[in-house]
Amino acid sequence: MKPYFYLRGLKLAEHTVFSVQEGQKKYYDPTFGKSVAYSSGQQVKRSLLDFLAEETGEARAPITFNYEITKDDALSNKEPWSPCDPSYADQLIGGWMRARPGVVTLKRRSPLSISAMRPLHPLLVSLNSENLTFDRSDKPGQHPVRVLNASGTELSEEQIDEYLESKQRTLPRRNWIPENVRTTGLFVYDIAIDRSRLFSISLNQHEPEVDKETIERLKQENWILSDDGDRLICPAIRREKLIPSLAKALVEWHITSNQARTYSPQTTLALALSENAGLIASAIRADLSEEEARRADPVVDTFEGVDTFISLSCKGYVRGVVGAADAMNQAEQAITRLLRDYDYEK
After folding, report:
1. Rounded to whole angstroms, how far apart are CA atoms 206 and 105?
2. Alpha-carbon distance 193 to 339, whole Å?
3. Calpha distance 346→342 (Å, rounded)
4. Which in 161, 189, 262, 271 has the greatest CB count within 10 A?
5. 88, 89, 94, 100: CA torsion to nearest 10
6. Most distant pair of Cα atoms in the chain: their distance
7. Cβ contacts of 323 within 8 Å, gap of 6 or more
8. Is the Cβ–Cβ distance between 129 and 35 less than 8 Å?
9. What is the pTM of this model?
10. Is 95:86 a contact under the CB 8 Å cutoff?
11. To 5 degrees, how large is the angle CA 84–CA 103–CA 75?
12. Are 289 and 296 in contact, with CB atoms under 8 Å apart?
């Protein structure tokens, strides 16, 4: 059995935003000459690990946030520290890195290689701009107004009235929020799962993943030495607990870092699994229309070498598919089998 298997998911985004700190993330597609939205692989990974934590009921690993007081008495944000402890599910699946002065850097690459979630095709997504208001003008007596002058001093009611009369201005309880970009359309994500490293840590101390103290503790917790003696393997009872939750997270994750007013369930329309990376892109793709310029049609195919799972919702966006109400449950079961059938202890 090959160590890697590959997953491609097709999701529907409906008038939502993948990032809200600086507005919608986007890039320019030079082939079709338009800007399109995307969600970074890091954001996808974070959302997947959040879903995994909810499924297992386990807290995520504690991260130490470091600050330094500078010479001018200001706070400087320094590199956060990971515990580098595979006892935590999100560390085991998500990997870690910790660099500290005077200490050997610990680094473990995640066994999940995760792409950005990007358009299935540039012609199958849109970016829409809208103007919003934050409005409390219906009850002005309930919502106070605070005005500061140029020196930072708060004005009294009499001073505010005098200023408004002299300048012929008003003070509405309303904020204008312009140019809010939302996206709608069909998006795909790809994940490569390396089963040979999924539930193991390397014992190599030349490029260490964990320190020697952690290795000894894991041995006391019944982690198993691999046949070649190079790795420690997570105990079978722990793997059996994590595998169904991981399978569910790989299928059902959704971005949770957006605001309430931009909520979209981000339905998984279809999912393809294969041990052949080259076949995944063909199973869920877009074809250019032969009849109409600048039109692309989404395609979900089934053929040998790929297992494709199609939800009923997919029928509303992809022509000719046959969906099933339990398609995503079937996908989770298929991923669970792919994870359980691998010989982790060899």
Report:
1. 10
2. 9
3. 10
4. 271
5. 0
6. 85
7. 310, 311, 312, 313, 314, 315
8. no
9. 0.85
10. no
11. 85
12. yes
> CB atoms < 10 A from the CB of 132, how many?
12
For 17, other C-beta atoms within 10 Å of its C-beta total: 23
Q: What size, in residues, is the chain?
A: 346
Question: What DSSP letter does each residue of 226-280 carry, written as one string?
Answer: PTTSSEEE--HHHHHHHHHHHHHHHHH----SS-GGG-----EEEEEEES-HHHH
Whether residue 309 contacts residue 271, with contact meaning beta carbons closer than 8 Å, is answered with: yes
**Tokens read off for 170:** 């008003």
Identify residue 241 by its one-letter amino acid code.
Answer: K
Instruction: Let me know if 333 is exposed, middle or buried by CB neighbors in 10 A (0-12, 13-18, 19+).
Output: middle
Which residues neighbour 107 within 8 Å (Cβ) at sequence distance 6 or greater?
95, 96, 97, 98, 207, 209
CB 278, CB 234: distance < 8 Å: no
Residue type, 141: G
* 236-252 and 327-340 helices, crossing angle to 10°: 150
The pair of three-digit structure tokens given for residue 30, joined into one six-digit string: 């030079």
